[in-house]
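Q: Structure tokens for this one, please.
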Amino acid sequence: MALHNERDLDQKSAEALRDALSAYRIIDLSRELAQGIPTIPAHPKFFLLPFPSMTDPAEFNQLVMGDHSGTHMDAPAHFVPDPSDKRRVHTHEIPLTGLMGRAVKLSFGPYDPVSYNIGRDEIIEWETQNVAIERDDIVLLHTQWEDRWSFVPEGFDYLRGWPGLTGEAAKYLRDKGVKAVGIDCISIDPGDKSGSDLLAHYELLAAGVLVMENLCNLAEVPGISYFMAFPLRLTGATGSPIRAISLVPSTTGNQ
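A: Here is the predicted structure, written as tokens:
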């Protein structure tokens, strides 16, 4: 009888979840992975190569790419270089809940290709006019830069002068206790930053705040949504491509 009751409970739980999710629509926030996508010049490029077998009738392809290809997540190890530092967490060590939760979309821009620095005061002003960012939120930065995405060589425009967070803005979000910060640009730091000046990466990743880059379709996402993304379980990797989605009520309009 106990086993029968447990099965009934499992079935009811599954049906309840199915019914709840049926009231939501899925917005895909991930770019297609294809040859010719724009990447940071020094990063590995993406290749999908046909790999025919001599004896197997099934089709195969070989993937050649970096662990930061396309829409991807940065793990803390990406910017915590000391092997003895306990904050040096790799992709396979990220919990499944690391990129799940309430998402708050902050809309800015559009920007000219001048490497605009989004500051702390701009985030505070957005909160004042909209909603407060809470602990464990996932922050999605909609800068409208995603409209420049294209395959190279046209896609080189996506790699020139993109906007990003200042170190102070990143620190503010870090101190808010957010889980992750994503942006519709090639990097969370502005295009004019490099090396030790990549302060947004340093402030966020060293504190365990995950970073997502090359998000898309953020114009379709309302101000508040439920966000989910899962990295590949790549042992020792410093990042991973992700399939990122927002769940929004079917009747919700864009904001």
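A few notes: The CA atoms of residues 104 and 131 lie 8 Å apart. The mean pLDDT is 94.
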